[in-house]
Amino acid sequence: MLHHTFDQDPDDPQAFVWSEVYANDAAFSAHASNPPVQEYLQKHAELGDGFSVEVYGTVGAECRALMESFGLPLKIYESRLGYSRV
User: 82 in a domain, yes or no?
Assistant: First the structure.
């Protein structure tokens, strides 16, 4: 993971957003396969409200399938133009 923040919604002090940047699909897969991460996702699905995943960037088919397996609302914004310095 290259970047990780937990940001508060400016309009709702009870709402937060995780922002994460990964080096590549393999790095995300390794993170998502980590047992504490899996435990967190499972518990949050039981206790949290409005948990969804938004991905900004192009991911491979295997990584997409992994994300879909979480059973959470998922929206992937495929990159068309631009660059990142991250």
Answer: no
